[in-house]
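Help! Submission page says 'invalid entity' but I think these are all valid:
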Amino acid sequence: MAHDPRDLICELCRQFYTQGWVSGTGGGISIREGDKVYMAPSGVQKERLKPEDLFELDAEGNVLKAPAGNLSACAPLFFNAFRIREAGAVMHSHSVNALLATLISGDEFRVTHLEMMKGIRGVGFHDELVVPVIENTAHEHELADSMAAAMEAYPKSFAVLVRRHGVYVWGRDWVEAKRHAECYDYLFEAAVKMRQLGVDAAEPPAQKAEAAQ
Ligand code: ZN
């Protein structure tokens, strides 16, 4: 695996593309290294990105290096995770699993007793995993305030779902952000499929009380 953040972003975008997370030029990823932030431009084919296509910004969000194209509309949202949660990497996915998860949730997506919850930092099998759901807006950058409020209100969550849109996921570095993104997506898919089977993923499994004795 490459270690230059520019190479990493291109490689991760290709992987996320095959997972259906960044198709149709949507979604993306940003990595912070020291006091520099790297991110893809807006509206480009994420699976065809080259390192020289990436924007470079400072920790305050000022553009240091601007290639062709426009800065991503996700920039203020990525910076929310850098500033409020000290993230080292943030990814934004238009995964269908994330979208469907918002349709079976109110203000919160909840699951419990699922093994893959353990892939999220600080979460165990018997815990309840909660992800806040914010309402979508006409323009991506308008999500910034409600996303920041959700991050403050749910300090244990490493994701914010956006209704009928997708999800923002972060971690202390790209390795953790990628693991979190994969585990959350798995849990979103599992909860939706469980609902189709008539099982509520937010409810603990029924006790096998006397039966075993
Ligand atoms: Zn989006």
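Support: the input was valid. A stray whitespace character was the problem, and the output above is from the cleaned input. Strands lie at 28-33, 36-39, 55-58, 63-65, 89-93, 108-112, 128-134, 159-162, 166-171.
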